[in-house]
Specification:
Ferritin, about 0% strand, mainly alpha
């Protein structure tokens, strides 16, 4: 489970690293997206350290390609919103399979941050509250296959 999460966090961390260098943002957008970049880099380090501490071997950083995601502000923010909501669904979808409290706490901690990222980006996009910034009164879990289908276009290798 943690390597699955690490793969997603590698994808997000690299997305924000590239996006914040290639898309001109201003004001709060710039402040928020730079913080999201730092959070995602921390998630990578945290998961890598946790996997190692538990005696596992962290999965390698994948090759990524983000296509037109950095074409302009709207493309960047829209893709960001998708990634964050996929992350939320992935963590929630995996929660029922977690038996180890350390792993569950790690996943729950990241889940909350991903949900906040999604809400901030939804707000920056000017999305409506219900169905935009918020995805409904309950988050919806995603299966591993749904998550892989959503991110596979960005993983060419």
């Amino acid at each position: 489970m943690l390597n699955y999460a690490l793969l997603l966090e590698y994808l997000e961390a690299e997305f924000y690293r590239q996006g914040n260098r290639n898309v001109q943002l201003h004001g709060l957008e710039q402040v928020y997206l730079k913080q999201v970049e730092r959070d995602e880099a921390y998630h990578v380090k945290f998961l890598t350290d946790t996997i190692t501490k538990l005696g596992g071997t962290p999965v390698e950083k994948p090759t990524v390609a983000f296509g037109d995601a950095f074409r302009d502000r709207k493309s960047y923010l829209t893709t960001s919103h998708v990634f964050e909501n996929v992350g939320v669904g992935a963590y929630l979808g995996a929660a029922g399979f977690l038996k180890d409290k350390t792993i569950l706490q790690a996943a729950a901690g990241i889940f909350g941050v991903e949900a906040r990222h999604a809400a901030v980006v939804g707000n920056l996009l000017g999305l409506p509250a219900e169905g935009g910034v918020y995805q409904g009164p309950l988050e919806k879990p995603k299966t591993k296959q749904e998550v892989l289908d959503a991110v596979s276009p960005f993983l060419p290798g």
